[in-house]
Give the backbone structure.
Amino acid sequence: MRTRFVFALLAVFTLCLTVWQAQSLEPANSQEVPQSKKLNESIDLEELKASAAAFEKAFNAGDAKAIAAQFTELAETVDEEGNILEGRANIESRFAELFKDYPKAQIAVTLTSLRLIGPDVAVEDGYSLTTLDPSQPGSRSPYAVVYLKRDGKWLMASVRDFPAESTEATAHEELQALGWLVGHWVDESPEGRVETTCQWSEDSNYLMQDYVVKSRWGGVTKGSQRIGWDPLRRTVRSWAFDQSGAFTEATWTPLEDAWVVNAEGVTPDGRRVSVTRQITLFDNDSFQIDSRNLLVGNEIQPDASVRVVRRPPAPLQ
């Protein structure tokens, strides 16, 4: 029962991880969840994330050969104008030309989703912020990648870039899509209660959350989270801290009717934590958080869902 509450807390509105949450995690019941399969999927997802990071590193180093090594022999790329380039050798030549023309070109990649279509096929969606010259503003473009697993290694078989976005909105304007968070929220279960208050910062450039977690065993944990706009990566980011010393950092990606939050953090005893959450807004007074791929240290934990509702105002005296 206590484990259930831990998992519920890991999915709380505040997106924070607390020391006693992590320390209370118990081994998962292998009869309830196919843990070996989930672990393999989790390993694949981590390898795909590493592949995206390796691409970013190779691009920023101007290393066309290292980039080409991440593609299959017959891979294709499609740029935002629809031009198709086929074959690893041609892809390497194209990047080599790019780095020759723009030796200071840099890229920042933000993943929005990773999906395993099968044991050897995966799809990645995200945004890339490319700056060809430090004196010029970068352009942010959505992209999609199809991966194939060959000889135990994930390689890009198809990459498609879409037209760049253009915006000069302020941080406050960029966060308006999350303005519905402002207010008082609560979620309850037989194991405890989480209360969260969200408001705009004094300069209106951040959303500030404070939360209190109360377990039925009498434990109380407090923490806070700041949600802001990253103008470099052009994405929403957040930083959460609780009184135990645990903290998390996350990127937020909008979907049509939801947000995907990819969070990573550290527990006070030094264990790494990562989780993907989808926040689905039902109406102005309720939403649901679904947590997937939760890893604490080297242990994968069961998925979890929690329903959060807006707390009604206190009655007038």
User: Anything to note?
Assistant: The radius of gyration is 21 Å. Residues 113 and 125 are 5 Å apart (CA to CA). Confidence is low (pLDDT under 50) at residues 1-33.
